[in-house]
Structure formats: structure tokens, C-alpha cells
Write a structure and sequence with these properties.
The chain is mostly helical. Helices cover 79% and strands 0% of the residues.
Length: 458
Amino acid sequence: MAATPAPGAHAHWSSRFAFIMAAVGSAVGLGNLWRFPFETGQNGGSAFVLVYLACVFLIAFPVLMSEFAIGRHAQKSAVSSTRQIAMDAKKSARWSIVGWVCMIGGFLVLTIYSVIAGRIMAYATGGFMGLFAVDGGIETFLNGASGEAGISRGLAWHFVFMLLTVMIVARGLKGGIERVVTILMPLFFVMLIGLTLFGVVRGLGDGSTWEAARYLFTPNWSAVDASVVIAALGQAFFSVGVASAIMITYGSYLTKDTNIGENAFFITSADTVVALIAGFMIFPVLFSAGAPLDGNPIFDALPGLFAQMPAGQFIGGAFFFLAVIAALTSSISLLEATVAFFDEHSDFGRPTSAWLLGGFAFMIGAGAVHSPEFDGWVNLLSGETLLPLGGFLIAVFVGWVIPKKLLREELSHASPRLFGFFHFMMRWVVPVAVGAVFVLGVDANFNGGQLNEALGLG
């Protein structure tokens, strides 16, 4: 096993390529391949896509810069980094609550994420076995002959996926995370481009490619309302991976000569391009088959469509294997954010911390497999409450608490224009936008959407 640093020691990325692959791998996950097509279909196609692009570059991008700057400044875990930069700014150490909210929210996301990723692993395996073409084959493979068999199999796939995640994180930054992402991410991009070209070329004959392009990019401003904006902002945060302690942690592994603005823009752009490519991979297939656009295409429509294609066994299996890669590179970053904190503040060491936290995450996920109600509560607490709250706290923390001079020192490579844009957005725009999403989400979940209805969003 590769040597790991002593408890409390802080590693650094071995190269810019390794950092980019890890950060892009963290951002490029199921949010791109699973959630983006779903949200696009639910929210009017181009009406959602165009607002999403604006949210990514106007809001998620400056937040990503902020998280990298916080982590690099202190060279510590997310909780310790927010505490350290607050103290260096002569503010209360209690601002570490920003790191706590983000870290706990990200960890809870991991517990449910692993359950979904386990199901995708099962679909990849069943796809290569040709089960998409067998009537009820993939359902029987997943669920067995009874509900209890389905629960036990779902638990097994969740266990396998979490096991892979823990094994990678336990080996450390260089021996685990870097080694895996520098292999998997290039493979991911090759497979993504190959599958997309297949779908695009296949759709040229029946016009479904052009239909998908019009659906995704023809401006349809009449369909844009407040609910679309809220959905797009939520997708931007989920997709880029901010407000979950990941990017603060990954930022802490950066050296002082790293150009944060340049790297943040590249990562944001790469993540966005993958989401759009995923749309071109999936929507031509849906249009060609006349499948509904407002469902969950990954699980509901695509398996049956793959079964009807020539070489559908290989193409379907490859698609879901692609999704497994995306899920794995994201899950290791979600676990890493919490492991970094425990490694820093305990005598367990990294491997033990990874196994303990991975085991805890598995148990929470197991509860979600057995109980849909519990699954709903974990989703509500993590993705719909803690992550938006974390994003709001980061915006207030960076925009109003950390002195502008200190931020400028961390973002010294940024041009005056870029830094001015960054600081204006973090002070005046991001807190309002994310705060509105958080308040409306809490209202919808706990008050029956009374505020949403009063504002015409219900």
C-alpha cells in the first residue's frame, strides 16, 4: 500500500493535470448525466438550459473561486480552513460553521449518491449481459422475485460502490485519488465523445439530432419563469460541486503559485460542456423514439431504447459504465472532504478514518434502501437544505466577512476586471440569488409552498 502522510500532515497535488482531473471529475458526476437531462425535460428545454448557463458562469463560478481561495489560504480541511481565514481576518472563529454546514451536507449527499450509483452499476452489468433486450430482465436482475430480494440486491450494489470509494480515498491524495482520476477521467471523455457521436450521427438520418439542438438551444424566453430560474440555479450548484466542502478541500491541496481564477474557469467550463454533450447524447435518442422528455430518461426510457438498437447490448452497457465513472470520481471527493477533517483532528490516520466514515455512510444509505421515507428525509436535509444553506453562508462569508484585501492576496493572479467581477457578484448577487432559492425551498418543503404560491411559483 502506498505510504500516507502522518496525521495532520497536508499533501499537495503533484501536478496541475492531476488537480484539474480531480476537480473536473468531482464536478462531472451524476448531476451531468442523470440530473441535467431530467431537469431540462422538466423545465422546458432551452428555457432551462440558457438560464442554467447564466447561473453557472455568473454565480457558481465566483463561488468556486471563493472555495479554492479559502482552502488554499489555510491549507487545511474545509472546517479548519473557514475557521483559519476568519481568524486571520480578525473575525470570530465561529464562522467555521460555514465549513461544518458544507461538510455535513456533502457527507449526507454521499450516502444517497452511493445508493443511486450502485443501481447504475447494476444497470451497467445488466446491460453488458444483454438484459435490456429481455422482457423484464433488468428489473428481475435488480429486484429478484420479491421486494425483499430487491432490497438485498440494492444493498449489495450500494456496498460494492461504497467499498470502491473507500478503498481509493484510504490510499491518500497521490496514491489513491490522483492515480484513479488521471486514468478514469481521460477514459470518461473518450467514451463520452464516442457515445455522443454515435447518437448524433444516428439522429442525422431521421432529424432527431436537429430536433434535439432546437430543443436545447433555440431561445424560448416565454417559458422562463421564477421556478425555472430556481431549478437552473440549483442545478448549477449541484453540477459544479460547490457548497459541499469538496472544492475547499481540493483547494487546500493547491500551492500558492496556482492561478485560481484560470483553473476555476476551466473547471466550470469543462463541467458545463459535459452537461451539454450529455444532452446531445441523450435527447436525440429520446426524440428518435418519441419517448417522453419530462420523465427520468436514465432509468425510465434509455434501457428500452438501447434494447432496440443494433449493438444495443454494448452501447447500453457502455453508457451506464460511463455513468459509473462519473459517479465514482464524484463520490471519492465527497468522502475526501470529511476524511480530510478526521485525519486532521484525530489519531486514527487516513485509512482508518476512510473506513469508519465509509462504513457510517453505508449504514445511512442502507436505511434509505430499506425506507423510502428515510431516503426522502436524507435528501431533504442534504440536497434541499444544507447545500443551499452552505452556499448562502459562503456568499455572505466571502462577500461581507473576509476583507477585500485578503481575498485579493489569494487571487493575486486574477486581472483587476476579473477580481472586480468576482467581488461584486459575491457581495451583491450571489447572496440574494442563493438566499432566495434557500427560502423558497424551505417554504416548499415545510410550509406547503405558501410563499411559492403567493409569488406565483406554485
